[in-house]
Amino acid sequence: MRKTFEAENAPVRALRGVDLTVSEGEFVALMGPSGCGKSTLLNLVAGLDTADEGEIRVAGEEVTGRSEDDLARLRRRHIGLVFQFFNLLEGMTVLENVALPAVIAGRRRKMAETRAADLLDLLGIADKARAVPGVLSGGQRQRLAIARALANEPTLLLADEPTGALDSEGGEEVIELLRRLHGGGQTIVLVTHDAGVADAAGRVVRMRDGRIVEPEPELRPDGGGAVVIEARLLCAS
Fold this sequence. Notes:
Rossmann fold
């Protein structure tokens, strides 16, 4: 992958040639300092931005070159997104926040709410179902954001600095939750600059200056199934 952003003074080369493969069942942490390109890579995989060069496939489906409507449909089928600052709908209840993605995807509201209630129970916040997000703690809000990301049973969960806005206790709660989800078979790619957070993953991919600075291992002991992400630069570096 290559990606350059136009800045006022000079172009910023966010990704300078990245190849990444993630297999089904893996928990991968993209780790590196701020500005190294890890969030840019995550956004390209999610179809929230477009690469200048290269090809991305998620669950066997091409991401690059799709229309916005097609990308939205792909995300509903395959990708759950968790952000640092939650992005919750404050005017809706906790249950409604979780059910909404399934309703948008065409699921009947009753079925969507049943799925949402099950997720809230799994994530330990079932007692907050009728509350609004504003009364939740930071850790609870991120649990809610994760529940919403899982509403459509995604192939892949992408989490961008999910503990960045939390205190240490809330961050530990979220990391333990991600471990449990991974133990249940969920494929996860996590962006972080924190080595303690990255330790939760089964594989750490370190980035610097828009490149992967440590080669990927040949063996992936916690994955090994079908390829979920394949991001490739298809020309000479």
